[in-house]
Amino acid sequence: MSTTPARVYVARLVGLPIFDPQGDQVGKVRDLVVAIRSEVSQPRVLGLVAEVFGRRRIFVPMTRVTNIDAGQVYTTGLLNMRRFEQRSTETLVIGQMLDRTVTISSSGVSGVVYDVAMEQARNRDWVLSRVAVQEPAKGLRRRGQTHVVEWRDVEGLSRREESQGATHLVHALNEMRPADAANMIHDLPLERRTAVVAALDDERLADVLEELPEEDQVEILSHLDSERAADVLEEMSPDDAADLIAELSPETAEALLELMEPEEAEDVRRLMSYVENTAGAMMTPEPVILGPDATIADALAHVRNPELTPALAALVYVCRPPLETPTGRFLGVAHIQRLLREPPSTLVAGALDDSMDPLRPEATIDQVAAHLATYNLVAAPVVDDAGHLVGAVSVDDLLDHMLPEGWRDQAIRSTERRQGRQARPGRPGGGHG
């Protein structure tokens, strides 16, 4: 590892790609596994928690890591694809050590851990060597003073905390894509997950909830007070909120709908009124809708919204007022590629594609799939019998409903069979090798 930095800060490793010797990416770094023996002895780094194929987390021993630099991690390529299971003697640096309250023994200063450094010892083992500690803010300061000290100078890291903050872990989660953050939250111990959920703002929690399995969604929502649960549901896309509310008891569902803003609740109730696994049930009621007097420049400004998924940004839906679903008469769609070829000052009505029949709310999953495939679309309008646009179905909505439960695990098993000759077996009875 001659090109590996002498000291590596763990929080900066999270999210880095992991490559095999051929330069192919095999995963991403999600955490670091260490064995803490005492507050005097530097903990030995056992390995990385890596996220591979379909969000599965595996253990990569440090003996398989050949190089770490500013932008990536390289391995020998021999990976055990068995799912990572943490042992009682192991500690996750990101998941469990960040935000731990500690005391610097030489000065008596207390603070919370916001990063940890590792380096190689003389025997070539990786160990945790330094701890970055932040004091509480004082006076008018927004942040407290920071200290980077030797491992042996910190007290409090070898014991478990009953109550642990989540500020710095939340900061790390906020740097991730929602799907990646959801996967990390899924794997946290219950008490740590509760602290993280409490610290996330409503919008970010909504983004993460949309990426979690239904059982996790229900469990997290059930631990929120009703007012906050309603606020989070308002931040979710209406179709995802409708799916989640449908998993709750009728009494709880109705109570939360009553607490939501009337307009948000109306969208959710409307989606819940459609038969499950139809275009109406899976659509979003909030595509990009413009009137026929809008210009190409107006349309392009709307599709630049970073909160839109690529599928929803691919089409602009042109309707007579009112421009909120259910709209006035649906006139047609304008494809983003066509908009990019037209002068910005021209009317969007001049770029309409009205050659396709729109979907009906009662269209089945197979009918929706056939429609998107036939016309090479990533999204399509859903129009009621009166010709009003009621929503749009995108290809990601369709896939969410078409793929069987546990499809990611099935993909992993097929990958394991293909790579079985290269993978080394883990220790008997353990979660990793």
Automatic annotation (TrEMBL):
UniProt feature coiled coil, ranges: none
InterPro entries: CBS_dom (IPR000644), CBS_dom_sf (IPR046342), Mg_transptr_MgtE_intracell_dom (IPR006668), MgtE_N_sf (IPR038076), MgtE_transporter (IPR006669), PRC-brl_dom (IPR027275), PRC_barrel-like_sf (IPR011033), SH3_actinomycetes (IPR058838)
Pfam family, one: PRC
Superkingdom in the source lineage: Bacteria
An example molecular function term from Gene Ontology annotations: magnesium ion transmembrane transporter activity
Domain CBS: 352-410
GO CC entries: membrane
Entries under SMART domains matching the protein: MgtE_N
Protein name according to UniProt: Mg/Co/Ni transporter MgtE (Contains CBS domain)
